[in-house]
């Protein structure tokens, strides 16, 4: 019995567009030959009629006939009288055009190792309140959830954020200057796009938050690393190295990663430089809510008063990163430019989450949460410091923030030591790769937020025991 011949009914789904120029018969020949060689059209498959293929590609039937004749002549097709044209039974496949099928298994998210950075401070009380608020807004949805909204974020939320920043951080702003973002990184991206163009010179702290440095370098800016000492960024060194910088990125309240605070003398010098040159200061105030000793530190933005500071904040450190909320406080001269970029890239924040966060701030839940979180992370910090006691490590107890630095003596390889730590379940980062210039201190950057004190201390002791 003669085997029934197959007909490829959907052959054109994978056929590429024919080039706009050049002989049509050659273009069609190459396209069909590519399908045959790659195995997408298999031996025995029937080719469409020349009338059909000419109509589909908008070419003459003569060109289609000529292409088929070339396929037959080269051994890629067989013409059967009264039956049509078929892919030849003996066609060699090109291995490079037929990659082996890859099975990509979904990776399960693994919990962070104790000591990892960027972990949540939210507790069960906070999560319970958010569940209640989110459920309320899902069961009684506002009309604004059903259409596009303000790219700056809801006015109600911006009113609460502005009030909080005035009271807690000394920021001078009104709700119209607040722009809600999806966290610090989006805030930095919006600021860079609004202020700068490729090739513009900027200062960054050295060492620096790696994601910020990568953003500045990735957008084509001319980055100048400015050293950080016990008083923060060395403004005089920055002026000497690149006095014409258009902007500077700083973490003045709690420098990342070294943890120092920018002195008042340096703050005033930085503001004076910005005013004199027309440059902007991008202030990343990422974890200032967590201060364990001494008076609260005022934000650089509140000292400025001349519109040269863009203030970047986040709820990722105070609540949880998965909530994806941060904010910018921008000078009014930049507001429309920033909002235009936001509108073109991200439209507007989640209105449902906005309403829940607004109530969380307005009803005092946020202040209560911060008090609870501050106690928990201080207990974790103290347990970590005690567990890290070692002749090889020098640990400075931070008065603020969610991480500490354990410095190494000499020129030890902190990268290798960090890998050893992770191998025993202690999720630290090496300090030296965070430097941009030649001068590099060596040590380990360790987070203490989001972990129970005993769990964090046990991981640290396992690491220290192997030193």
Automatic annotation (TrEMBL):
Molecular function (GO) terms listed? Answer: transaminase activity
Q: Does the keyword Calcium apply?
A: no
| InterPro entries per the UniProt record, alphabetical | Aminotransferase_I/II_large, HTH_trans_reg/aminotransferase, PyrdxlP-dep_Trfase, PyrdxlP-dep_Trfase_major, Tscrpt_reg_HTH_GntR, WH-like_DNA-bd_sf, WH_DNA-bd_sf
Q: Where do the HTH gntR-type domain residues begin and end? A: 22-90
Organism domain of life = Bacteria
Query: Looking at the keywords, is Glycosyltransferase present?
Result: no
Per the UniProt record, one Pfam family is: GntR
Name the Gene3D superfamilies for this protein.
Type I PLP-dependent aspartate aminotransferase-like (Major domain), Winged helix-like DNA-binding domain superfamily/Winged helix DNA-binding domain
Annotated keywords: Aminotransferase, DNA-binding, Pyridoxal phosphate, Transcription, Transcription regulation, Transferase
Recorded family membership: In the C-terminal section; belongs to the class-I pyridoxal-phosphate-dependent aminotransferase family.
This chain belongs to which protein, by name?
GntR family transcriptional regulator/MocR family aminotransferase
From which organism does this entry originate? Peteryoungia aggregata LMG 23059
The root-end lineage is: Bacteria, Pseudomonadati, Pseudomonadota, Alphaproteobacteria, Hyphomicrobiales
């Amino acid at each position: 019995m003669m085997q029934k011949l197959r007909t490829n009914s959907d052959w054109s789904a994978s056929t590429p567009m024919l080039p706009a120029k050049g002989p049509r018969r050659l273009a069609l020949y190459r396209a069909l030959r590519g399908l045959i060689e790659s195995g997408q059209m298999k031996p025995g498959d029937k080719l469409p009629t020349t009338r059909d293929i000419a109509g589909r590609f908008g070419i003459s039937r003569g060109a289609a006939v000529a292409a088929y004749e070339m396929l037959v002549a080269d051994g890629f097709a067989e013409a059967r009288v009264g039956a049509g044209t078929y892919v030849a039974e003996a066609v060699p496949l090109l291995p490079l055009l037929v990659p082996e099928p890859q099975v990509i298994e979904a990776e399960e998210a693994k919990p962070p190792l104790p000591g990892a950075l960027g972990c949540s401070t939210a507790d069960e009380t906070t999560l319970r309140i958010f569940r209640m608020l989110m459920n309320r807004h899902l069961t009684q949805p506002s009309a604004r959830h059903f259409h596009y909204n303000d790219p700056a974020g809801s006015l109600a939320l911006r009113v609460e954020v502005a009030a909080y920043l005035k009271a807690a951080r000394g920021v001078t702003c009104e709700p119209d200057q607040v722009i809600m973002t999806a966290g610090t990184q989006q805030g930095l991206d919006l600021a860079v796009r609004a202020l700068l163009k490729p090739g513009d010179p900027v200062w960054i702290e050295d060492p620096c938050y790696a994601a910020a440095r990568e953003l500045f370098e990735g957008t084509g800016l001319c980055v100048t690393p400015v050293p950080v000492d016990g008083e923060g960024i060395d403004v005089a060194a920055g002026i000497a190295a690149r006095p014409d910088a258009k902007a500077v990125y700083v973490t003045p309240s709690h420098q990342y990663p070294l943890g120092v605070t920018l002195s008042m003398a340096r703050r005033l010098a930085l503001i004076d430089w910005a005013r004199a040159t027309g440059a902007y200061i991008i202030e990343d105030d990422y974890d200032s809510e967590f201060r364990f000793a001494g008076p609260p530190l005022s934000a650089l933005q509140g000292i400025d008063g001349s519109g040269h500071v863009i203030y970047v904040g986040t709820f990722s450190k105070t609540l949880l990163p998965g909530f994806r909320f941060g904010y910018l406080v921008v000078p009014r001269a930049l507001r429309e430019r920033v909002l235009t970029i936001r509108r073109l890239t991200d439209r507007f924040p989640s209105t449902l989450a906005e309403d829940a966060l607004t109530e969380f701030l307005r009803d005092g839940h946020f202040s209560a949460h911060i008090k609870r979180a501050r106690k928990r992370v201080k207990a974790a910090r103290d347990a970590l410091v005690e567990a890290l006691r070692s002749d090889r490590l020098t640990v400075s107890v931070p008065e603020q923030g969610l991480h500490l630095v354990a410095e190494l003596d000499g020129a030890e390889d902190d990268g290798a030591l960090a890998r050893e730590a992770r191998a025993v379940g202690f999720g630290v980062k090496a300090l030296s790769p965070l430097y941009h210039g030649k001068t590099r201190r060596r040590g380990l950057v360790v987070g203490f937020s989001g972990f129970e004190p005993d769990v964090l201390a046990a991981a640290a002791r396992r690491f220290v025991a192997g030193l």
